[in-house]
Amino acid sequence: MKINTLDRPVRLPARIADALMKEISDGRLQPGDRLPTEQYLAENFGVSRNVVREAIAQLRSAGVVHSRQGHGTVVAEPEKPFHIEFDQGTQGGQFQNVYELRMGIEMQAAALAALRGGEDQLAAISATLERMEEAERWQAEGVDLDIEFHLAVAAASGNPLIGEAITFLTSRMRETIVATRERSGEVVGEVKRLTIDEHRAIRDAIVARNPAAAKRAVAAHITRAAHRLGYDLPEESAGLDS
Description:
By secondary structure, the chain is mostly helical. It is built from 9 helices and 2 strands. A hairpin with a 3-residue loop joins strand 1 and strand 2 (72-75).
């Protein structure tokens, strides 16, 4: 199977998911067919395997594909999928919606990570933070590492549904992160410092096994990230005003 390559837009995972959906809707991939390997898709589209993994996770969360033991990822039987539309004409409101949805899910993920996370999982969170601090290409590599950090926290929560939910949101998260960095212009260094400080606060609270502090740190990070894009997302919306 030959799938056309893509330009490199901001929404790569979503674009790749759409391309695979077209293969399915056009009948070139049938229910029960195995998807090409992550390696093949990454080489075909000219992207990293992490980006391909995000795209497949979106399809899996939408019920379009599923994992079958011994067969890898296969096309599911048709059903009405869960899908979040992203209307470019109302991007501002959609960004606000993404931040508000992230708030509840990621606060719970951080709290559970503080309670349940294994030492290896906490080490993975710290290692990702260190790579964020050392990243030289903040507008490119830094975006992937930002998302990787939040996925590491989700993995440490011990709840696979939280991990799936955050994975499903990663393409939307990627858009908000990229938009923030594109608007930062000459103050990119300041944005990087603030972003890393916010992620460090989340990591420190989780490592300290303090779920309440982990929730507060996530609420502060998402609120400030929204503010950097000009959206009003008060911490009171996270229930932390009492």
